[in-house]
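Wed. Picked up where I left off yesterday with Class I SAM-dependent methyltransferase. The coffee machine is broken again, so keeping this brief.
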Amino acid sequence: MTVLHPEAGGVLRTDYQKSVAAYWNNNPNDDRVNTKLGEVDGLYHHHYGIGAPDLSVLEGPEDTRQDRLVKELHRLETAQADYLLDQLGDVRPGDRLMDGGSGRGGTSFMANQRFGCQVDGVTISEYQAGFANDQAKERGVTDKVTFHFKNMLDTGFDAGSMRGIWTNETTMYVDLFELFAEFSRLLEPGGRYVVITGCSNDVFGARSASVSWIDAHYGCNIHPRSEYFKAMAANSLVPVAVTDLTPTTIPYWELRTHSELATGVEKPFLTSYKEGSFQYLMIAADKVGR
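Structure written out below (tokens, as returned):
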């Protein structure tokens, strides 16, 4: 069992945060999907995929089918990260970016490779921060990419120090008004925030059984779509682009049902997406004012 650093008391502010951190600290080997897919090329993600899958991976020799599936699922999740980075706008080598809820660091490394800039990853899991910093050493980018045991609701970074910030399937663990207040503080005027997240569809009405099942599975609190825009408006973040990625993520989930890594969460995801109670959304927003 991982022993929490003495600093943990200042980073983990609630019992809920402690429970989320404890899961990732004490059960890294239970996270079979993310670790297995990351072993394909050393980019470890903590999110899902988008795009048209190559269904030919389901054909061919049975004894190598699972390997083909893993590589294709990883290609789709990396495509999702590439798409997110596309939304950050004009980022220069001298800029600084932040990955809120950075996991094992996959997208942070991709951002540094693409833009040549400094990237700070923030996670409440000491295990994840350590794993990702080890990856930075192996990649020879410790001068540019650093992972911090910090709470993204209160990072301690200087105000206006970030050109861009992103969160990738992490906002369902926090209060959005608190989160966007901190992000607005961190972003320089005109800086860009990008979020990709699952959210419940207000038009559907009450939270569906499938969305509630997903909440329970991950121990999170999925926000309704409207909550994102309310919290952004309250914190000087003005959307510049909104894209419903639901149609492009459904094929990823359908392909995952064929994998031996399937966890059982595939059915509620597919049900909720197809019935319209759940949406996979990308929002890019600019910081206005000071």
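Quick read: Residues 65-86 form the longest helix (22 residues).
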